[in-house]
Specification:
The chain is α/β, with parallel strands linked by helices. It has four helices and seven strands. The protein has a five-stranded parallel sheet with strand order 2-1-3-4-7, with helices on both faces. The termini are far apart. The relative contact order is 0.14.
């Protein structure tokens, strides 16, 4: 009798990987989802809680979770989104990375419907922190509305995953 993980395996296992986390997310998407998915979830790869919160939603709604870098959309991910032609793209977490991603995807994917989901509307303009100690700017002058940083065509939703109820993002991003 076998012990360990081998005894739990049913069927065959295929390893999917890319050269980094971004290409791995694209490889998993390409091997799992056909074009025309109802939704694709996008999260900054360095902020794993956002990506993890999208996994249950992707399973329920039938769409992948793709990862992007903080300040760019890797070509392999952008090409996968073009192939998928999702009816909707949900960016999980605004932040600087989510805001940049939403605005760039709007330009790259002409017919995309994009929603950004974040727990607050406050965006800290970090370069402004340099001016605060010298009295050249006050703390209230370097905080801006996250919504104001997005193109008008992008929907912004204030929402948070309910950790007590274990309610995934799809419940708040419909």
């Amino acid at each position: 009798r076998q012990k360990g993980a081998d005894s739990l395996a049913v069927g065959s296992v295929t390893r999917l990987a890319g050269s980094d986390r971004y290409s791995t997310s694209a490889a998993i998407s390409a091997s799992t989802f056909a074009a025309g998915v109802p939704v694709a979830y996008v999260a900054v790869g360095g902020n794993f809680p956002d990506a993890l919160s999208g996994a249950p939603a992707g399973g329920v709604k039938g769409g992948p979770v793709l990862l992007v870098a903080q300040t760019s959309i890797p070509t392999v991910v952008q090409e996968e989104l073009k192939r998928l032609r999702p009816a909707r793209i949900v960016i999980l977490g605004g932040g600087t990375g989510g805001t940049l991603t939403a605005n760039r995807l709007l330009k790259a994917l002409d017919d995309a419907t994009i929603t950004v989901v974040d727990e607050n509307d406050r965006h800290l303009y970090q370069p402004g922190l340099l001016f605060v100690p010298f009295g050249l700017a006050g703390p209230d002058e370097i905080v801006r509305s996250r919504r104001a940083q997005l193109h008008d065509e992008i929907e912004f939703r204030l929402a948070e995953v309910d950790r007590d109820e274990q309610r995934p993002v799809e419940a708040v991003a419909e």
